[in-house]
Amino acid sequence: MENTVKNPAEYGYCKDGKVYLKGYLEYPDRLIGVVRNTEEEALQYFVNRFAIAENKVNLLFSQVDEAQNKGSYLTKLLQLRKNLVEFDGLGNFVPLLHKLDELELQLRELILNNQIKNLEIKRALIEEANQAGAIDDWARATDVIMEIKTKWLKTGPVDKALQDGIETEFNGIVDNFFVRRREYYAEKNRIIDEKLAQLQRIVDSARALRYEQDVDAGFQKVKDLQREWKTISQVPPKKQSMLWKQFKRSSDFFFERYNNVKGIVSKPRIDPRAQQMMDMTTELERNFPDQPNIPQTAEKAKAYLVKWKELSTLAKSVDRNLAERFRNICDKIFEMNYLLRVISYRHPALHEKPRIEQLKIMINQMDYMTKKEKNELDSFISESQYSGQMNDKLVINKINTQKRKISMKETLLVEFKKELETLLGQ
């Protein structure tokens, strides 16, 4: 940067081996250094140092110009002005100080405007907090309050004279909300504890009735306990489930004794939805061997898949073995349908051929499709590993689906070969 000081003597002088800065504005002459060699060199040294002061001022203006939160530089400006009047250098400090004065006015005006705007925002947030505190749903109210609190923290300060008051008002609203929330959940937990105590009492009463000698009186008491149980609601599901299992175990034990004493043979109740799922599975298994009608069976299997999902969400429990049977027979039907559809392009009259010839054609085609799909799956796995997608949920699902399809093709292939061996051995 070109030095703006052309005549050092205009701003300073040497006396008794020392260097002085001439007074300016309200500041008197000030000692800034000593003469080490010649007076000219000493003056020039401090003239060169004046460039440092100019650069600091220019840097501050550049930073303010680029900053979004310009008001945050006010403190830095005030510190820089203090440093300038104490800076050891020779030059015209007056323009630099005037520039800082002008910038200070701009920043203070900007800060004032921001404080007014922040005050408007915070007053609006106080109103929002008051409204949120009146929301009936405590969980939703808490989310809204926390969102408002985040906005409050992100909003800048207001005028110092108002800062403490508005902060106290907002914090009071938030604190009051959380006090009421704590009291609400404390009361809710107290009610839950009372209900759990009632359920525990019912469980203990049922346990005490297991060996009741007067089975008629015991029967009525257990029935009364069952009716009382139904009147108690809104307790934690896990705890209720645990207590229900204990209650049901004691009740079932008593009713079994009651039936034995009365000579009653009880028939197990079957969930009608579970029965419907069993019927669907059995029907598909019965229809599968009807090879010519596989397309119709496949359409029925698709409809049953949708129905199965509906029933499985409603049924109390689904037998795992039954679910596996249903899934296998559906896969089997879909793979057989696909095989026959592919074969029909070259052998439209397949079902009119002798069974041995049908099996040979089906074995050849199924063997070809199985090997082809295995190769495609291996390639897909290699590509997924190379691209780092093996942990992707969609990729994993696709791999598992393809493995299941290949496994079913292999199962059908084994069945075809066994049937062919049987026919050839006759």
From TrEMBL:
Residues 100-132 form a coiled coil. InterPro entries: DUF349. It holds the Pfam family DUF349. Keywords: Coiled coil. This is DUF349 domain-containing protein.
